[in-house]
């Protein structure tokens, strides 16, 4: 008997392996998945401009990266004793304006290079709700706790999101025509927008993403991973949520990664992934008696395993 509904997931046409170079962009769920890529020692770059939730702000950043449009003094502002950019997350904000500009422009150059080399890009959309700066009439990626009266809150229409996603695809393909796209919608619910409003927001994302997948149905380089659907159906229980009852907890993240790796990681890479996992667990092992012969033998054996895997995959570092 089946006591839960299971989401059918198609095997990827272009699976990720240890030669692949992955870029992950988008919401905080992109970071959850990227932590898994890092743990298993895949070649992965995550959110060089911090967490970004809405499709238009992701498109803006991609446009800057592809065209190498560097930030200047007019693109940053001073508030609360720090310099910020409305296009990036507050994690990058800095008390020194020049340092902020250097950080942002270095990220543009490095990400441009990484994007040219990448085999896969994973884009996670979080919300259709956006904040528009009333003075500049620009959509912002982050408000940086600037008073809300300086922004209008809007729901992006499906047509605008569709076009933004299409623009994002085309921009990236200019730089790297061979790259593989994996789109997903974040399973994190944005309840501060309201319960019905969150559902509306997610539905706009689904409609826009699937419109692009359907209109590019013969393009095998565009794929969709149902992380939101797995969370809502297969993990339909509060035991799979963090304390805020909104974010997936570690058990849920592990399960969604398991479903992802089953379908998007190449079968040839599974043995390496398991070897890396064993090494990671051994590195976390704490001995009661570090000086004992038994522990020294354990360390020597562990070093042999690390050397063997690094001989095969030179990018892997522990």
The N- and C-terminal alpha carbons lie at a distance of 43 Å
Residue ranges: pLDDT <50 for 5 or more in a row? none
Q: Give the name of the CATH architecture.
A: 3-Layer(aba) Sandwich
Oligomer type: single chain
What percentage of residues falls in helices of 4 or more residues? 40-55%
Strand order of the largest sheet: 2-1-5-9-10
- CATH class group: Alpha Beta
The number of distinct helices, counting runs of at least 4 residues, comes to 9
Our count of domains comes out at: 1
Large-scale geometry? globular
What attributes does this structure have?
GSCFA, 318 residues, 9 helices, 45% helix, GSCFA domain-containing protein, Rossmann fold
Task: Give a brief rundown of this model.
The chain has 318 residues and is of the alpha/beta class. The protein has helices at 28-39, 55-67, 97-117, 158-175, 195-215, 227-234, 250-264, 270-283, 293-312; strands at residues 21-26, 43-46, 77-79, 82-84, 120-125, 129-133, 138-140, 151-155, 180-185, 222-224. The chain has a single domain, classed as SGNH hydrolase (Rossmann fold).
Overview of the structural elements:
This protein is 45% helix and 14% strand. It has helices at 28-39, 55-67, 97-117, 158-175, 195-215, 227-234, 250-264, 270-283, 293-312; strands at 21-26, 43-46, 77-79, 82-84, 120-125, 129-133, 138-140, 151-155, 180-185, 222-224. The protein has a five-stranded parallel β-sheet with strand order 2-1-5-9-10, sandwiched between helices. The chain has a three-stranded antiparallel β-sheet with strand order 7-6-8, with no helix packed on it. Helix 2 (55-67) packs parallel to helix 4 (158-175). The longest helix is centred in the middle third of the chain and has 21 residues, at 97-117. The radius of gyration is 21 Å and the shape is globular. The N and C termini lie far apart (43 Å).
């Amino acid at each position: 008997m089946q006591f839960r509904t299971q989401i059918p997931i198609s095997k990827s046409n272009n699976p990720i392996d240890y030669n692949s170079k992955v870029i992950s962009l988008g919401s905080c769920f992109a970071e959850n998945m990227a932590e898994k890529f890092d743990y298993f020692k895949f070649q992965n770059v995550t959110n060089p401009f911090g967490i970004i939730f809405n499709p238009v702000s992701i498109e803006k950043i991609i446009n800057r990266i592809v065209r190498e449009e560097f930030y200047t003094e007019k693109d940053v502002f001073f508030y609360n004793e720090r310099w910020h950019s409305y296009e990036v997350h507050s994690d990058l904000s800095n008390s020194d304006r020049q340092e902020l500009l250097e950080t942002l422009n270095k990220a543009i150059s490095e990400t441009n290079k990484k994007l040219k080399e990448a085999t896969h890009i994973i884009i996670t959309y979080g919300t259709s709700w956006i904040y528009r700066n009333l003075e500049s009439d620009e959509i912002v990626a982050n408000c940086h706790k600037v008073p809300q009266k300086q922004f209008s809150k809007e729901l992006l229409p499906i047509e605008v999101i569709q076009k933004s996603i299409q623009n994002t695809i085309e921009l990236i393909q200019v730089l790297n025509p061979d790259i593989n796209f994996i789109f997903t919608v974040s399973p994190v619910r944005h309840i501060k927008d309201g319960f019905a409003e969150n559902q509306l927001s997610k539905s706009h994302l689904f409609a826009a993403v699937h419109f692009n997948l359907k209109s590019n149905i013969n393009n095998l380089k565009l794929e969709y991973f149902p992380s939101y659907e797995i969370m809502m159906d297969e993990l339909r229980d509060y035991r799979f949520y963090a304390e805020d009852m909104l974010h997936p907890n570690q058990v849920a993240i592990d399960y969604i990664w398991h479903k992802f790796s089953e379908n998007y990681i190449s079968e040839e890479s599974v043995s390496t992934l398991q070897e890396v996992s064993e090494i990671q667990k051994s590195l976390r092992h704490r001995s009661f008696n570090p000086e004992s012969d038994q522990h020294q033998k354990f360390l020597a054996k562990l070093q042999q395993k690390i050397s063997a895997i690094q001989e095969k995959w030179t990018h892997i570092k522990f």
